[in-house]
Amino acid sequence: MKFQNVLNTGLLSILPTSSVSQARPPRTALSLPFDIGPSTPENTANYTPPVFPIAPFNKYAHNPILKPNPAANWESAYLYNPTAIVLNETVFLLYRAQNTSKTSSIGLAWSTDGVNFTRLNRPVVYATEPWEHIGGTEDPRIIRVNGTFYMTYTAYDSVTALLCLATSTDLLNWQKYPPLFPGFQDVEYSDIDVASPRINHSKSGAIISEPTADGLYHMYFGDSFFYHATSRDLLNWTALPADQYFAGPVNPWENRLIEPGPPPVKTRDGKWLLIYNGMTTGRVGYPQNQYSVGQMLIDPSGSFRPTINVSDGMYQPALRDGPVARLERPILVPEAGNEKKGQVDQVVFAEGLVQFKGKWFLYFGKWNSSFLERTLNDNIPLTSTTGQGDSELGVAIADVQLETQDLA
């Protein structure tokens, strides 16, 4: 059986979508608004852990929040897939940008309200290593542990995607490390369920920012199944074999592949909420190859702990037999014109989630074409306002549930 051992929890339904605002001129700066260091405070005041699921998300009325900047070659063509973190009551986005040759770099932007952003006038991570040429550096996901930022990203040499890691204490200067899982072999499935092995392929690493009781940090990665890796120092990672994947596609909207979104967020009861992305074969009521966004609840401290022999000794990996629960339906789907047509069609893709000023901000977009959004409450058609490949960043916002509230 290809997919198994997953409890589905259907909680949300899909409603129509929304509109987009007029474009705003880019705001750029030569430096950050303040110096960042190990002691810079993280998270927003009065942070409240979530309950599963976070819902509903409402589209910000004045999207897009960022678009390609024709005045800067490195981000002149496309923007995608931003990760987010809050520092000193400021939201920082790290986002993938492409030039007209489709070489990717990672840019940095910031906002004191979560929606109006100023961007640094240069990339902070770009191709410097052999495994990063010519495709560049893609799709960042960031956490912070003990004052150090750990950012997973995908290096792409125009042939193979390789999951990599970089560290920083100031968001500007990054120490890169070699690919995390050289030689890893997974499998991808076509839209007619034909399997093809992929050797030396890995991407999309979402790290849980706290270790389990045994001192292990946990990462979920992959763009076919969710694979599982552990580390004691956040730098050296050991992946379980692909056939011992953590979770696979189950629901119709995700039945071709699933891929992690933002790093998991700890819930009020000590589990972890993971927003993720899925693609459908299109044979079960969704358009073929459509990407949508969902949520699942995971527990890396689960009781299923077989002992596995690995090269660096003995350790006990956490629960591998799937999430505690996942939503049966997606929370975001492509519906409007410029979400459905782009460099890759039928895609919305989430990679950034923060709590800020009493709200949840979900940053997401249209993978390989445009950053757009679809919310649970709107019913106005979205129309394209960009002449640059419909490539935009957007945000959706949800209320923070109070400690005394329970989901109905």
Automatic annotation (TrEMBL):
SUPFAM superfamilies assigned to the protein according to its UniProt record, in alphabetical order: Arabinanase/levansucrase/invertase (SSF75005)
Coiled-coil blocks: none
UniProt-listed InterPro entries: Glyco_hydro_beta-prop_sf, Mannoside_phosphorylase
Keywords: Glycosyltransferase, Transferase
GO MF, any single term: glycosyltransferase activity
PANTHER family: GLYCOSIDASE
Name of the protein described by the UniProt record: Glycosyl hydrolase family 32 N-terminal domain-containing protein
